Amino acid sequence: MSSAMTPRERVLAAFDHSEPDRVPVWLGASPAFREKACRVLGLDDEGLSLYVGDDFRRVYARYTGPEHASPYANLPPGTTYRSPFGVLRHGYEGGQPVSHPLENATIVAEVDRYPWPNPAWMDASLILAEALRYAGHYAMLGGDWSPFWHDAIDLLGMENLMLAMYDNPPIIDAVLEHLVDFYAGVSRRIFEAAADVIDIFFIGNDFGSQNGPLLGDRQFRRFIVPHLSRLIDLGHSYRLKVLMHCCGGFAPLIPAMIDAGLDGLQALQPNCRGMNPARLKAEFGSSITLMGAINSQLIIEGTPDLVRGETRRILDIMKPGGGYVASPSHDYVLGETPVQNLLAVYEAAREYGRYD
Q1: For residues 196 and 273, what is the distance between their CA atoms, to the nearest angstrom?
Q2: What does 109-148 look like in DSSP terms, one character per residue?
Q3: Which domain holds residue 36?
């Protein structure tokens, strides 16, 4: 059995595809769930992370730009969020866009004239001090979430986006270029301020649906990979691992992600087409770190015993040889999740996740 490691050592071993002392774990949860769990358990936010044994901590830049572009200030009635690109959204946990500002754009000049945000609106000055509170003990997630695919959908509309990939590719290229210019600029500011205390550049884009990928390998490599590679290369230039959250059944796109240099994939929804955990481990486990695969739907709808059994099953599949981080199959445990069900994940990971 491996000797005890710090959480940071444990995570980095998993990213290096070697077996640590035990499978590392991560809790990514919505504010609503964290507040509920803290209330139920009588803990503060850091106490919750300690209680479940979370091997990660995360740091964020803060919005300090003009008030008219603020994510949560001066929102029209019925809306809940404003994206960095001015798209208003409404509904549960971020919701859906109320309009698509570039849906009628037909020439690149119209895209270029759009009021794109300035990376300087995001303040990274406090990140170093926040990360240093943990004294290098935990694996630190940082960088901008960078959901450029989602933003392209918000700006153009899904149907327009898909059609323009065939009918007007320069429009798609221009939109993605501007989007990733912003996100790369924000993350560069973060890394210039604090790369020495960040271990993993954590980004998120959902390229899958319940029944398969949202676009094929050819279109993914043509339109998405160049911009995904920009972000991966940026992280690597600061000696960071790059981890991407991706929901849905996107398995046919994983080879392109590996070719782009991605170090890890998070979520791995086992109830989506093509996302069988045993298949993912067999086909990709030696090439990319796998994180997740513990069914979030079961965690919401099941019982602690069912969740514990499913967690053990996933650990038996994913644990051998390292290269795995245990977590629910979503990056954001939702507020309706029963606290005891969620705790069963981490109890089972402690019990069955050791490398003997």
Answers
A1: 39
A2: HHHHTS-PPPGGGEE-TTHHHHHHTTTT-SEEEES----H
A3: 7-352
